[in-house]
Please model this.
Amino acid sequence: IFSRSNIDDDFWDELEEALVISDVGVNTTMSLIDDLRDIVKDESLKEPDQVRVRMRELIAEMLSDSSDFDAIPEKEPVVLLVVGVNGAGKTTSIAKLVDVAKSEGRNVMLAAADTFRAGAIEQINIWGDRLGVPVISQQAGSDPGAVAFDALNAARARNVDLLIIDTAGRLHTTHNLMEELRKVRGIVEKNGTGFTERILLVIDGTTGQNGLMQAKSFTEAVDCNGVFLTKLDGTAKGGVALAIAGELGLPIWFIGTGEKSADMSAFDAEAFASALLP
Amino acid sequence: SLSDKLGGVFGKLTNSGKLSEKDIDAALREVRLALLEADVDFKVARQFVKNVKERADGEKVYASLTPGQSVIRIVRDELAQILGGEAVEIARADKPPSVIMLVGLQGAGKTTLAAKLALWLRKQKHPVMMAACDLQRPAAVDQLNQLGKQLDLSVYSEEPSSSTPVKVAKAAYKKAADEGVHYLILDTAGRLAIDNDLMGELEEIRDATSPVETLLVLDAMTGQDAVRSGGEFNDRIGVSGMVLTKMDGDARGGAALSMRSATGVPIKFIGVGERPDQFEVYHPDRIASRILG
Ligand SMILES: Nc1nc2c(ncn2[C@@H]2O[C@H](COP(=O)(O)OP(=O)(O)OP(=O)(O)O)[C@@H](O)[C@H]2O)c(=O)[nH]1
Ligand SMILES: Nc1nc2c(ncn2[C@@H]2O[C@H](COP(=O)(O)OP(=O)(O)OP(=O)(O)O)[C@@H](O)[C@H]2O)c(=O)[nH]1
Ligand SMILES: [Mg+2]
Ligand SMILES: [Mg+2]
Model:
């Protein structure tokens, strides 16, 4: 009657390894494995494949956004403030969102509020040009809050459906830059009448456990609503998304899969779970 | 921190000073978890702990009166062995210019580093030139040209729509040679290690300019993908050194330990900010203490 279970120590070790090498992190991995061990007992699972399938379900559940909070609401004008650490992919992700929004017939406008980095304004201007959307900008070195303020007025005047504000990359540990970001967000809040505000956090999919620190700090500073997880077209699995969703309840909205404006998709929890644990 | 965790593991024991195999294993488990939390590669962490265990057994740590401190010391030594090493040198070519090629994943900090490196070399009285070989990212050429202008550093670039990265590299080399430039720094486009065509392009640039240094630019916050990608860059084009960027943040930097352990490539510099002067020659103990927490 007693078939020797193939769910042995080796099995659990392999499962732990699969999750950790995908950047799920030790804490999240251990808590998932604990839950799964209980499930194996309660449901008397005997086959490794069955357990793997259940793990994928647990992961998908963790990542499913149970809120009916729309990422980018359809029937109302939206101002989207895009934030995140240096090089995460903010400017490029904005181009991708413009691509989708335009295909949905929305009237889109961009604000070049990264007034600091060399070539930043030129970079977003090229995207605006390629995608056929206006970019509000001032000269390099100007106050990002002033650009945001200008853009909101221009967007209202031109009946824009979606205004996306690009900001400079910054590390969440650099106090004065996080203060600057709070200020820009404050300006958006005060002057965003007529617009529904959304704060999008861009996280590089190759990031390790620091991704959770980023999500915590940026959310604490400017109340991020959702995440755009980039660079998943490489070999990184983006497992830090689990801790971000699990510990902070911050939903993953979009994923980036390349450098062109078409290279993104809406986040699919099941697909992500299967890619994490094939 | 790891010392606190090990203190916790050994603190529960009586003062008999006699530890069991189980106690040492509990301590080693804490070391492994600490490494994984610091983004150290899974396999590198496992091997590291094996080495620590061997030394702990060999040194009879189980008989020590302060086993926690002994384990910490062994861990620190093992880290120092992997991370430490030769002093930083930038290689010199037999005849100038010496070419330094910067490579790495998208957004790691290559273009910013080009200016930092150029500034550092000029401070040492070397005539330098940077070449804008990223023709793909929107305004990448503008970015490098602006940095050059800000610092009064010479930049060689061509119109992206009518050139190729290899052409730019060759032309820059010729101009640098004609002008007696000591160091030519090639900024390249970020790329995936698994992109066969783009890795081929890098090989072409390398073959055309024979760099004395090919520096892999690695973001300090990189997770488990570090060795997967970095190892592939090394296998395909050969990497002579690494630069760890964004070390002014709070990423633990385990990726550096992983790459160093897995490929032997030395860490030469670190980036500690966005400004061109926020650039330092690497010191092994910096990463060791970050990983230990
Ligand atoms: N492969 C890949 N590359 C990406 C993706 N998203 C962005 N990139 C690349 O990552 C690099 C950085 O992208 P940016 O959009 O400039 O990043 P950023 O966050 O705006 O950077 P800063 O403004 O400097 O902080 C560029 O080379 C992009 O092409 C992605 O999904 N996949
Ligand atoms: N805080 C901090 N930011 C850095 C550091 N190095 C680079 N950056 C920032 O990181 C972002 C990306 O830098 P880039 O130099 O554009 O990166 P890249 O590797 O050339 O990017 P691609 O060409 O798109 O692959 C920019 O916002 C830089 O200012 C660093 O050491 N610290
Ligand atoms: Mg940007
Ligand atoms: Mg670049």
